[in-house]
Amino acid sequence: MKNKIWFITGISSGLGKALAQSVMEKDDFVIGTFRNQDQVDNFNKNHQKNGFAILLDITNQKEIENSVEMIISKYGKIDILVNNAGIGFVGAVEETTMDEVRKVFEVNLFAAIKLTQTVLPYMRKKKHGHIIQISSHGGIKAFAGFGIYNASKFALEGFSEAMAQEVSSLGIKVSIVEPGPFRTNFAGNGLGIAKNVIEDYAKTAGAFRTKIQSVDGKQEGDPIKASKAIINLVNSNNTSLRLPLGKTALITIKMKLNSVQSDLETNKEIAKNTVYK
């Protein structure tokens, strides 16, 4: 196929849905994942020319391998992999059970690693490809009540930053997209909440839980505009690793950078004095 083939996880709603629509409008081809067979059938019925949907549980490694093999067999390539599927989660670290932690990491981190590992051999063979990791401004700066989600996105950014250095000489590009609050289902039905509540955290994690739920449907970010920015990134010569999206993302990421710089300046003499003379 002459047009680019995008493999996008989680296109049933939010940024994934907007990105799939925008890509198809640009006459590229979308292969997208759903968790519901009815959604798969409906998508394939309505997008026979420029899209194809598959049923995929991204936490199932064998399903990932089978899906990628099927795509390569049928279409011959994957030009752009977008690890978009993810879940939100709020709750203080102490409030969160290990089962809840594992669920967040299975979706937000381990699935992205496995999908990336499975697609990379085909990109290496062609010396061509672009991997887009949908992170968050919460992948740079942590917030009280968001710690487990932050941890999953910090980890996503960590392996992606290292991988970008590993594959840069192989014709493969890596981009980390860091949206702020966007008008998606993230703060609605897509948001996980710690079942355990500890009253001592009411003014920190509890306040954050209330705040994030109150902004559902009122977020500043436009998913269609975000999707167009991602498409422009793919089609441009932009070599930056990170792409922040939204005014809030710019503010919070700058706050983190300033905080780190302040800590460096405060402790630089201590750091220097811990080495052998």
Furnish the topology, listing elements before pairings.
Elements: E1 5-8, H1 14-25, E2 29-34, H2 37-46, E3 51-55, H3 61-75, E4 80-83, E5 88-90, H4 98-126, E6 129-134, H5 147-167, E7 172-179, E8 191-193, H6 205-214, H7 223-235, E9 242-245, H8 247-272
Parallel strand pairs: 1-2, 1-4, 2-3, 4-6, 5-8, 6-7, 7-9
Helix pairs in contact: 1-7, 3-4, 4-5
Which key terms come to mind for this protein?
globular; Rossmann fold; 8 helices; alpha/beta; single chain; seven-stranded parallel β-sheet; 277 residues
In short, what is this structure?
By secondary structure, the chain is an alpha/beta fold.
Report on this model:
This protein is of the alpha/beta class and 277 residues long. It has one domain: NAD(P)-binding Rossmann-like Domain (Rossmann fold), CATH 3.40.50.720. Helix content is 49%, strand content 16%. It has eight helices and nine strands. The strands form two sheets. Strands 3-2-1-4-6-7-9 form a seven-stranded parallel sheet, with helices on both faces. It has a two-stranded parallel sheet with strand order 5-8. Helix 1 (14-25) packs across helix 7 (223-235), helix 3 (61-75) packs parallel to helix 4 and helix 4 (98-126) runs parallel beside helix 5 (147-167). The longest helix has 29 residues, at 98-126. The radius of gyration is 20 Å and the shape is globular. It starts with a strand and ends in a 5-residue tail after the last helix.
What is the number of helices?
A: 8
The arrangement of helices and strands along the chain is EHEHEHEEHEHEEHHEH
CATH architectural group: 3-Layer(aba) Sandwich
Biggest sheet descriptor = 7 strands, parallel
Which percent range fits the helix content? 40-55%
Could you name the CATH homologous superfamily? NAD(P)-binding Rossmann-like Domain
Structure summary, number of beta strands: 9
